[in-house]
């Protein structure tokens, strides 16, 4: 019985984890908006959606930004390298699939002429460096 309750509780906890409008994403959005950049949200462009539904889309610049959580997207930082002890095989497979899907979506976007930047959750600790990186990415001329 205790396993069932634990499993149900874990399922409930997981259902509360958002994929959109996360705290890291909102921080990046506020920084960019304060600097005067305007964007569309979650992969929407005229004529449909972009592969992977990027968090921020700068259609006129042909640039997109993904804001990824280090754990969920298997980043190589300390948090991303953390391996859960419970149900380890499940989590390893799930996180590996996410990382592979991210790479595939990035290739599709780049093949379609989009420039892609991934902002990792751990990069948000140094806001000044983050602002510099975002500015450099968005100011860089679009090839073609």
From TrEMBL:
Pfam family, one: Vsr
Principal EC category: hydrolase
UniProt GO MF annotations: endonuclease activity; hydrolase activity
Gene Ontology biological-process annotations: mismatch repair
EC number: 3.1.-.-
Keyword Amino-acid biosynthesis attached: no
Function: May nick specific sequences that contain T:G mispairs resulting from m5C-deamination.
Cross-referenced NCBIfam families: vsr
Similarity field: Belongs to the vsr family.
Protein name per its UniProtKB record: Very short patch repair endonuclease
Native source species: Arthrobacter oryzae
Gene this chain is encoded by: vsr
């Amino acid at each position: 019985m205790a396993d069932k309750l634990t499993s149900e509780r874990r399922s409930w906890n997981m259902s509360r984890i958002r994929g959109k409008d996360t705290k890291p994403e909102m921080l990046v959005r506020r920084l960019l908006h304060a600097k005067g950049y305007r964007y569309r949200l979650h992969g929407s462009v005229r004529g449909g959606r972009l592969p992977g539904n990027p968090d921020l889309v700068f259609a006129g610049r042909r640039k997109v930004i993904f804001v990824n959580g280090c754990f969920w997207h298997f980043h190589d930082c300390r948090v991303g390298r953390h391996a859960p002890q419970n149900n380890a095989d499940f989590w390893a497979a799930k996180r590996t699939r996410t990382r592979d899907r991210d790479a595939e979506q990035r290739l599709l976007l780049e093949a379609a002429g989009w420039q892609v930047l991934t902002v990792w959750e751990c990069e948000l600790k140094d806001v000044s460096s983050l602002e510099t990186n975002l500015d450099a990415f968005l100011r860089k001329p679009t090839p073609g």
